[in-house]
């Protein structure tokens, strides 16, 4: 894990432990995953905006980005699962707007990002329902309340 923006640790002293617990909870629930690692970058809005622009052609900051690694052993000999980047400003704003502790929102977004690395998506209602259900299950095990409670849209 790399913490580029110290605002993360100023806001939440246990940031690193929270991130790894959430990521590990998802991986533990997917025992068939043989990947050797995930790189998690906790950074600022400008850095995530640049990544979003350069890799997704969307020129704005977003809460979390996931970049799955190739599954081909020749292209990915280390067996990395992928990379995740989180934007402090967006995440902190969302947590405040939703009346949630930043720690809970961070763990939700890490779990969400790891699920994307594992192939989950929310492009249609059926996919979204499956992904959100799994997020709820993972987060309940971390004592994080349902992030979608009261959100009729779910996404």
Describe this structure in words.
With 155 residues, the protein is of the alpha/beta class. The chain is built from six helices and four strands, in the order E-H-H-E-H-E-E-H-H-H. A four-stranded mixed β-sheet has the order 1-2-4-3, with helices on both faces. Helix 2 (15-29) packs parallel to helix 5 (102-117). The two termini are 27 Å apart.
Strand order of the largest sheet: 1-2-4-3
Low-confidence stretches: none
Distance between the termini: 27 Å
Give the class from helix and strand content and strand pairing: alpha/beta
Briefly say what this structure is:
With 155 residues, the chain is of the alpha/beta class.
Key features of this structure:
single chain; 155 residues; alpha/beta; 4-stranded mixed β-sheet; 49% helix; 14% strand
Question: What topology emerges from the helices and strands here?
Answer:
Blueprint: E1 2-3, H1 7-11, H2 15-29, E2 37-43, H3 45-56, E3 64-68, E4 80-87, H4 88-98, H5 102-117, H6 125-141
Parallel strand pairs: 1-2, 2-4
Antiparallel strand pairs: 3-4
